[in-house]
Amino acid sequence: MKTVMISRVLGLALLSSLTFACANTNNGTKVETDATTTITEKSPELEKVGYSVGYMMGKGNREMLDDLNLDTFEMGFRQGYADKESALTEEQMQTVIMGYQQRKQAEMLEKSKAAAVTNKAAGTTFLTENAKKPGVVTTASGLQYKVLKPGTGKKVTASDMVKVNYEGKLLDGTVFDSSYKRKEPAMFAVQQVIPGFSEGLTLMQEGGEYELYIPAELAYGETGAPGIDSNSTLIFKVELLEVNPKMPEQAAAPVPAQ
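^ thats the sequence. predicted structure below, dont judge the formating
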């Protein structure tokens, strides 16, 4: 029974389509929620459960519901939890939520289209200027690379597995992925990653360190990816540690997948 109840609570926290504001953490140990309530790991269990559900609901839905009226959300949450009569009928609530979702989806689509155009233009400008810089080479596909440190070991082929350290950045310098930050090299098949990254790897030898400048069409294109907008040009610093390394029994670290 307890397992079922806990699963339902976590399900509510992770899958709920509504959210309320969550507090800022202080080194992950102490959080002030308002003037009179403080949550710590020593707080009573039910206080920690309530806070955890609320925090996860807020964190998980913050971007989707960025203009939520928190006052009326709290009112509805409290009345619903107390099983009081609602101010709106169930049909009215379903209608207004559906309308809201449709409006937000339309807004997101328009923003995505605008970002795609802006990112494409920014990428073209960057690559045009970057191609003129000393040491930058442009391949037939449009990939650009710069050798930071030449390798002396095995050369990579398209059918190989590799062990690398890498850092991926957007044109504005935002780091969206980094094995350095995880403090663990990544191991994956050369053909497992985005085309520009795969091509860049096949130019390298063990011990080499390159910087790759990947046009959107050789990266995530118009679709984009989590943390990467449509038509984004990407910059990767790649350090090739080993070709065809012995694979660990555990799953490999995350990679810039296709």
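DSSP finds six helices and nine strands in the chain.
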